[in-house]
Amino acid sequence: QSTLTEVIHLSADACGFVLSGELTLEIKDVGTFVAKKGDAFYIQAGMEHLPSNKKNQICKIVCVQLKKYQI
Predict the structure, then answer these.
(1) What is the pLDDT of residue 16?
(2) What's the rounded Cα separation, in Å, for the pair 41 and 34?
(3) Is 63 within 8 Å of 47 (Cβ atoms)?
(4) Which of 32, 41, 64, 67 could link 12 by a cystine bridge, Cβ 3.0 to 4.6 Å?
(5) Are 49 and 7 in contact (CB under 8 A)?
(6) pTM confidence score
(7) Dihedral, CA atoms, 21, 64, 30, 35, nearest 10 degrees?
(8) Strand duo 31-36 + 60-67: pairing
């Protein structure tokens, strides 16, 4: 069980790409996933999740939040 506070993106989807290292993503009611260098990830808005670096190395990611706009 995680001891850190979970993060919620209420109104934005998030997608990202791991540039180096490993990113562990714990998503409530879905599971835990490890994204390694070269992997992409996507999290829908409103999903409780906890990103963490469980390795003893630097993890670099690019992450974009996608907000829906009406025109």
Answers:
(1) 96
(2) 10
(3) no
(4) 67
(5) yes
(6) 0.80
(7) -20
(8) unpaired
How buried is residue 43: exposed, middle or buried, by Cβ count under 10 Å (0-12/13-18/19+)? buried
Residue 13 has pLDDT above 70, yes or no: yes
CA distance 28 to 20: 25
CB-count burial class (<10 Å; 0-12, 13-18, 19+) for 23: buried
Query: What tokens were used for 64?
Result: 């974009």
Q: How far is Cα 51 from Cα 15, in angstroms, rounded to an integer? A: 12
pLDDT value of residue 68:
74
